[in-house]
Queue: 2 jobs
Job 1
Amino acid sequence: MNYIGKSNLRVDAYGKVTGKAKYTADLAPKDSLIAKVLHSTIANGEVISMDVSAAKKVPGVVGVFTCFDVPDVEFPTAGHPWSTDPKHQDIADKKLLNQRVRFYGDDIAAVVAENDVAASQALKLIKVEYKEYPVHTDARSMLNDKDAMALHPNWRKDNVIAHTSFKSSDDFDYDKAKLKAIEEYGEENLIEVVKNVKTPRISHCHIELPVSYAYVDSNGKVTVVASTQLPHICRRVVAQALNIPWGKVRVIKPYIGGGFGNKQDMLYEPLNAWLSVKCGGKPVILEIPREDTMIGTRTRHPMDGDVRGLATKDGKLLCRELKNYSTNGGYAAHGHSITAKCAGIFQNLYKNPLGVNSEAWTVWTNAPTSAAMRAYGVPQAVSFAETLTDDICFKGGFDPLKFRLDNLCDENLVAGGVKFYTYGLKKCLEIGAEKIDWYKKREAYKNQIGPIRKGVGICSFIYQTAVAPIALETASVRMILNQDGSMQLSLGATEIGQGADTVFTQIAAESTGISPDKVYVISTQDTDVTPFDTGAYGSRQTYVTGNAIKECGLLLKKKICEYALLMEDEDGIKGKKLEDLDVSDNYVIDKNTMEKLIPLDKLSTTAFYSFTHNQHITAEKTTDITTNTFASGCTFVDLEVDMPLGIINIKDIISVHDSGTIINPALATAQVHGGMSMSLGYGMSEELILDPVTGKAYNNNMLDYKIPTAMDSPDFKVEFVVMKDPTGGYGNKALGEPPTVAPAVAVRNAVLNATGIGFNEFPLTAERLVHEFKAKGLI
Amino acid sequence: MSKKIITLHVNGKDREVMIDERESLYETLRNELNLTSVKKGCEVGECGACSVLLNGRCVDSCIYLTMWAVGKDIVTVEGLRDEENDDITDVQKEFIKEAAVQCGFCTPGFILKAVEIVGHNKPYTRDEIKKLITGNLCRCTGYMNIVTAIEHAIKHNMDKLGVPYEVMPSTTSFDVPEDEKDKMLESLLAMQNNDVTKI
Ligand code: FES
Ligand code: FES
């Protein structure tokens, strides 16, 4: 392979280091009106009335719109492919502005003004009268209150978005399995761990705020330029919310400053479009301030799970159970799919010879809406599964590495139509163990006393590449040959910072034989121009869209070779057949002799301007993928705990990934760094905290909500176990999200190794550590 | 509103602008001078995305009044240039080479901070670099490659000053040798130099 597996520099790096790369807010017309949103100051209830008279009088205010003015249309906001089967459609439970308030910060009114100051002043002058209802900010308290009011009575009376139970077999019951185990092994030969684990509400904290601007163009088309991960889905949702034909909406996506799943939901694009329509189609820009972003957009689900696990005294895992309550917040967004994915990964990460039950409830609550965030329920799944494993090992005196090598799922795993076409999980563990010097350190860190204690820990994971067969996986690609033998690559898949445009360029180059410097990837998606793709989520693009690029590239190459046969006057062409020709390094070549026959620039110019064989060579391909392959990997960490201060110091950390062929190792490594950092935030410092009584967030700003800074970030080590996966375009599997899964839990397990305390509530803040060490008499 | 006409010295030129006395330097640079590399991530001094150089030191322009910047030398990423070699600066090159850019939204702020740091002419360690950049937030990179890029930029400067300086060796077995990265950068810049905006 010529261009796959090479660390090409990013195609967009020059624009980004020189400030030339344009993001949504950079492109808004100078005369754009400014919109701002008013958020509710109660968490559950109704807006009875609103007085906007003073707000309307502020000079410069163009319009004030309230929850009483919006269309009576509830729409779905999730960035899923639409389903033509009503049973599988996303839950439509949100209006543009909501009179029925479901969480503290719900959108209840909007102001449009000629300038920022006027818009802000007007917001403050809106008077709201509420009727308040009791508040339940988390799933359990909502379910425990039998009289709790339904937040979406049209959908469910009990606030349960969905309840599922994945069992190894229909009749599996953990308690029965335990009785069977006692019979077989004797109670004294079993180790059981029963506990509760809680995961935090996490804010995505992409540095670019959610922003869009909308206008109605001269042909009446409602146009939204948006910082979104999925322009084509955004178009559909805007149309549904405004109740207009889908073709009447156009969505344009320039560079975006991070999304991490938050921008996989339609956030304020529909409202923005509607505000522009209400203001005569004038351009209106809507940028959500950080404080509102952290409560009013989406968050990662806080989950609260009861887990049980049983193993034999010689280290054989027998059976496990998870009962997980997932707090979804005021609106359904992705519905149950994230909690369901969490349940599936918990179930399948290990072999469970006596069976497993993974049960999950996703619950509407009076809290910010939870939806997609990088790794979609899997960080929570391994928080349950991999803390359980280490607690079992701690209790049974097993080596956590050996226990995993013995009990983790193997290459035969098949789950929900997903399997390991290539299996590298145990190899990852072996490499990680060697690099961190596992056995030596486990030995050295035994029986420690004193204020500084050392520990090593592991966490492993599996991860589905893409979303098939649960969801449609489709991608379209268009290639256009230019007169000089270069090409445009146009796709609906999006660059969101992860480096997609660069790997797309490499895949296009590999499949066409046109060198990467002559592949012009069109980074901006425009639904009026760009072919369809569902967008950036689920670690799917390099797999799904990558396949489409490969197919399209092969088609373009075939057309080029067919045209070459028409150029009979060229030396060496006469007598050649299609199967003799190939394209390599910008030449049509003879495959058998590798002889260069026609340079592509000459061929292209001829094709464009020939009187006899005029042709504009283009190719277009839509592919849908029905296979899905597991990626996997692990993180090892070596750390010190400062007991009196409760501070964790990471000395060494390494992630090893089984992601098939690595298309661009340098960018892949960078991607892993970012995921590791995000996971350490989840593990050690990040938590958006709500007041349980009022539902108001305590720390919705970047000073009090602690994402890692450079000083908090160790130097990360990264390795890959490269195996060519037969289903990936060039052997590749998921890598976008997996890096965000394991590090947090590896840290937790290393703290257990260091101190003997297994923490079951993330993040492991200094406060939590000191509190627990004191309670246990360690300090 | 009290509007005022003032002169700002931005990216080497005097620029006359009409401002509201209450507006931030962030607003003036973007709205009046179209310097859109100055980004907003919070507007309250938390993230550093809006960093600009004022007399060689980074400030958060979102919490700095434009009025205070009168008479100072203001530099944004649009104004960075290695005049001697008519090229982008070493800092910018190292950000490209070390894959320190992902979504790119924090990048202008980090680059200006890095320019300031390199300008100190000190052989900073990685830990010292981390401390110096800790006021700039990045959610994509985990900072690792940013620190490495800054280390490499310091190295170029230390080489010029004749001061010995070692950068951290690569931590992955997949790393590309420096000379190969240089070659790729060269061809990337050659492509950019064909850019009509530069001819
Ligand atoms: S925008 Fe100025 S510091 Fe965040
Ligand atoms: S590169 Fe995206 S925030 Fe830093």
Note: The pocket of FE2/S2 (inorganic) cluster (ligand 1) is lined by residues B 40-43, 45-50, 60, 62 (CB under 6 Å).
Job 2
Amino acid sequence: MKAKLNPAYLSAYAIVLGGAVIMLMPFWFMFVFATHSDTDILSVPPPMWFGDAFLDNMRLLLGRLPYFWHNLGMSFYVAIATTVLNLFFCSLAGYAFAMFEFKYKEYLFAGVLSTMLLPAFLGMIPSVLIMTGLGWMNEPRALIVPAACGAMGVFMMRQFIGSAIPKELLEAARIDGCGEFGIYWRIVVPLITPAFGTLGLITFIGAWNNFMGPLVIMNDMQMYTVPLALRSLSGTGQVPWGAISAGSAVAVLPLLVLFVITSRRLIEGLTAGAVKA
Amino acid sequence: MAHLSLRNLSKRYDNNPPVIENLNLDIHDGEFMVFVGPSGCGKSTLMRMIAGLEEISAGELHIGGELANDTPPAERGVAMVFQSYALYPHMTVGENMGFALKLAGKSKQEVAQAVGRAAEILQISHLLERKPKALSGGQRQRVAIGRAIVRKPKVFLFDEPLSNLDASLRVQMRIELSKLHKELGTTMIYVTHDQVEAMTLGDRIAVFNQGRMEQLGAPLELYERPANQFVAGFLGSPKMNFVPCQLKDASSSEITLSVAGDNRLVLPSSHTIAARGDITLGVRPEHLHIVPLEQGFRARVDLLEHLGDAEIVYLELAGSEQPIAIKLPSGGHGLKQGDLVGLRPDAARAVLFGKQGQAIRLQ
Ligand SMILES: Nc1ncnc2c1ncn2[C@@H]1O[C@H](COP(=O)(O)OP(=O)(O)O)[C@@H](O)[C@H]1O
Ligand SMILES: [Mg+2]
């Protein structure tokens, strides 16, 4: 097929291309700056292509942030735990809301959704108070447990399960001898893997990039997650841009890998229910 | 194998009128029982109560002599075939069929054996490795039946299992189900809204209407001796004709009807009929004969339908909205549109229906 070369078509392409460049530019500069020294970065014009200072930057970073690898591990731990718990609890709740009839179901569901209306900042002080009360301050579980089941995930799972799984399937399993948890585990879970991919990715990215949560919960440098650790570099004295860029590049890498792995699933999940297979 | 007994069974959702009301029914061991009725009359609900998928609001359900009201579905010894087949999409045909046995803790070998046997009966052995989405409608249907067979249930439940198949496949599967029943000898309960399926499959038929059982009996018994107008109208195609009449007079040997105002019709009867006034004469298309004008009631030919082996003639009766249908052997009657003819029912096969729809037989 040959693309039509009329002006409207070309200008549409130009606009989309321009948008893509603007959105990708920060990414590009992050990777480029990660390989240049601070003096190079601050020169005019700034470097546009990769240099050879990446290892120096990393050394600098590890000097300023002795716990960087530990911070990275903390990020992984919090993000993975949050994701796994979200997949489990959101799908369980979504399954119940989609498939069971119980009293006050509509009100309960409205209650769940209404938690999405509250800005996250509003919860900061209460959650610090609660975590202090529990003695969980400065511990990863203070980040993981409150985020273990998000309203968005419950909503998504309810929609997906309601559209993808006919009730008769569950009844057939019930007659075949499945218990209620068995039905969830053996029938529902295998059939909602596309939604798991989508929700998993969204949750992982959210937890990985979470800044406010760790900021109020974590006190020791050792317990910081990566965004918090990197941010702490720009607080005092001269800002080590090269080191920050190198750390950011390292922090973004897992997300890129995850996205490449799950992007097909993600798109399936986002369009699921539009067309019944 | 088991017999079922339903005692004063009722089902009610919240405060709505009952979907099933005070049902009493015995289903014999090894019987093929058909529940038939129009859509929404509660057949599926009743079947789902038997399966344990719906709670029983009141009354008792006994399966094989044991009270089963609160027995979980898997322990009732029932297997169900759903209209949508409800095959597990992520499992192969073999896994679908063996799922119940696997859950029951049977060894891999036992499961494979049982699945293999059932697959042979249904001629789907070559499909065992496939996923349901790679099967045709007819094959999915077989797998669904196979999944039921593998469990060796005491009772098979079928909820409109053939209604998603095309017409020719439906006839074929109907025959196979009949054979399967003979082969297995297991109690089967079959829900359908299709009276042909009911007539051809059932040892006995229970006709439902709005949550009540209107009549229970063998197919021909219901066809020939319907208990009321609903049953009479539901079974048979084309439908039984209902002719509005007035019952003028009745002796111990004959009755006098006035059909559509001025048509006098005298029919022999074997007993004195007490009813008087407005009444409905019910007669099936094949039991209505063309006679000289003065011997029957008059109607005008409206439409002829050629079926090949037979012809359906639709006639208009003055004063009645409903056309009258008669079934004649093909050709040779010389009728054409607009002809005025006399019609006379076969008195031995005609039925009167009183105001409440109850059947009153002439003989
Ligand atoms: N969960 C429910 N809540 C309220 N009414 C219901 C429910 N399920 C079924 N019904 C009603 O029960 C009646 C019988 O339904 P059903 O047994 O499916 O009919 P059939 O199978 O004979 O077509 C219908 O009128 C339907 O509206
Ligand atoms: Mg139904």
Note: Residues B 13, 16, 19, 37, 39-45 surround adenosine-5'-diphosphate (ligand 1) (CB under 6 Å).
